[in-house]
Amino acid sequence: MDRQAIQERFGIIGTSPLLLRELDRARQIAQTDITVLIEGESGVGKELFAQAIHEMSRRRHKPLVTVNCGAIPEGLIESELFGNEKGAYTGAVERRIGYFEQANGSTIFLDEIGEMPQAAQVRLLRVLETGAFSRVGSSKVIKVDVRVIAATNKDLGREVQAGRFREDLYYRLSTVVLKIPPLRERPEDILPIFEHFLHRFAQKYNTAPKRLSEDARRLLLRYRWPGNIRELRNVAEQAVVLHRGDTLTADDLRSYLRGVTASGVNQGLVPVGRMRSENGVDSRERELIYRALLELRLEIREMKEQLGALTARLGAAIPQANRREEDGDLVIVHKTEPEAYTSLIEDVPYEIEAEPERRPPVTKAEPVKPAEEEPLPTLEDAERRLIAEALRRFEGNRRQTARALGISERTLYRKLKEYEAES
Ligand SMILES: Nc1ncnc2c1ncn2[C@@H]1O[C@H](COP(=O)(O)OP(=O)(O)OP(=O)(O)O)[C@@H](O)[C@H]1O
Ligand SMILES: [Mg+2]
Questions:
Q1: Can you give the pLDDT at residue 193?
Q2: Distance between Cα 343 and ligand 2 center (Å)
Q3: Which residue among 35, 102, 346, 391 is least crowded, i.e. fewest CB within 10 A of its CB?
């Protein structure tokens, strides 16, 4: 496969010499069984490279086994990697096959290798040297044929100096080191990748394609991208989902970029990479956080729109004679019968909760599926049923029904009229 075919097949976008050099090296070593260490900041594409190397190797017919060493509790990592015999430790109720045995004949991707505890480092070194290990709680030697690709966003050399990472293991792992450059060192890749994601997400969410204005391009190039391509992808996704028009300006993008203020780019915020290594948030968690943020933004936007519409209606409903401006604020004076708009105010909760399904679909973060439950009624249906039930209980007495439901008689009356009109 030539370089271009590889880029297309694995979705590795970019033309910067720094990236292409690493890609060429990856291609050269893919067919061998050499151990590879992939270094790079958070979100630069280390996992993407690991997958590409595996898929280009003769081992591609078996699945790549990915292990996030930073996400496994320290006390469990050895048994996760190498397996354990029944009763090897408290809680080891049965024999467990470790990831290394699962990866026999294939490739194991040890992500966040810098987080690996020392004891596991010793065993790993032994596997790398002899291809052999034993399960925790057993002395029987197991031989496997596994290719190791490791990745880290720490400076492993420094970890060695600080005594946190074994020097012998470091040398064994770093036969071939791929250094994936951060986005800020390959600015020529920013716009092509951004536009690629704009296109991809427009297809995914079934929206019209969007283009970037000149100032938007300049902003994207000036931004430092602390979260690298993962961040860029999230920004593009938000822009596709949240922005209505077909052109994105710098102002539109600003709200999605971390550490960007109205006046420009500031670098005061902690880069994601550092956040992670300090508090152990792994990339899947971060993905979820991003998604939750995205949904939150959607909700806030929707609420704003509904409030806007409501305020406009309220404004229109207040008679001119009852309005007065004070320092630019609208003051409502209760000169005449306030009833004219109390019903509108009472309706506020309904207005906000009215249209349940206007949000564009946000997929991926899969909702927990309750087993075999009745489908939920729509809010409107539930409301209708509740009112009917309350009326039945109070034998048709509207005053008591309204009081029990916490709404005004007028609202109840209006709702009944609506139901009547619909049926
Ligand atoms: N050159 C590229 N072109 C297009 N997409 C890319 C490129 N590099 C990375 N990506 C995408 O960016 C996202 C992050 O990449 P990846 O998970 O490989 O990063 P990482 O270096 O492993 O990050 P972390 O250190 O946080 O685990 C993925 O969705 C990946 O597909
Ligand atoms: Mg990764």
A1: 97
A2: 55
A3: 346
Distance 299 CA to ligand 2 centre (A): 30
Report how far ligand 1's centroid is from the alpha carbon of 396 (Å). Answer: 63
Q: What confidence tens digit (pLDDT) does each residue in 340-390 have?
A: 444 444 433 333 333 444 445 444 554 555 556 667 778 888 888 888 888
Tokens of 57: 């190797």
Work out the average pLDDT over 22-33. Answer: 96
Q: Give mean pLDDT, residues 198-212.
A: 94
Tokens of 304: 């704003």
Whose tokens are 């049965």? That residue is 94
Taking every pair of Cα atoms in the chain, the longest distance, rounded to a whole number of angstroms, is 92
In a domain, 100, yes or no: yes
pLDDT-derived band at 257, boundaries 50, 70, 90: confident
Question: What separation in Å is there between the alpha carbon of 163 and the centre of ligand 2?
Answer: 24
Answer positive or negative: Cα dihedral of 200, 202, 203, 208: negative
Q: How many CB atoms lie within 10 A of CB 211?
A: 11
Residue 84: CATH number of its domain:
3.40.50.300
Judge if 133 and 219 occupy the same domain: no
Question: In 3-state terms, what secondary structure has residue 393?
Answer: helix
Total number of domains in the chain = 3
Q: Are residues 148 and 227 in the same domain?
A: no
pLDDT 10s digits, 48-106:
999 999 999 999 999 999 999 989 888 889 999 999 988 877 777 788 899 999 999 99
Mutate which of 115, 155, 230 for ligand 1? The one with the most ligand atoms within 8 Å of its CB, which is 230
9, 107: one domain: yes
Looking at residue 238, which CATH number applies to its domain? Answer: 1.10.8.60
Nearest partner of 50 among 42, 61, 39, judged by Cα: 39
The answer on 119 and 21 residing in a single domain is yes
Query: Residues lining ligand 1, CB < 6 A?
Result: 11-14, 40, 42-48, 153, 193, 229-230, 233, 283
Domain check: are 201 and 163 in the same one?
Answer: no
| Cα–Cα distance for residue pair 131/112, rounded to 1 Å | 21
- pLDDT tier for residue 232 given thresholds of 50, 70 and 90: very high
Domain limit, last residue, from 245, 266, 281: 281
173 in a domain, yes or no? yes
The ligand whose atoms approach the alpha carbon of 51 most closely is: 1
**188 is in which domain, residue-wise?**
184-281
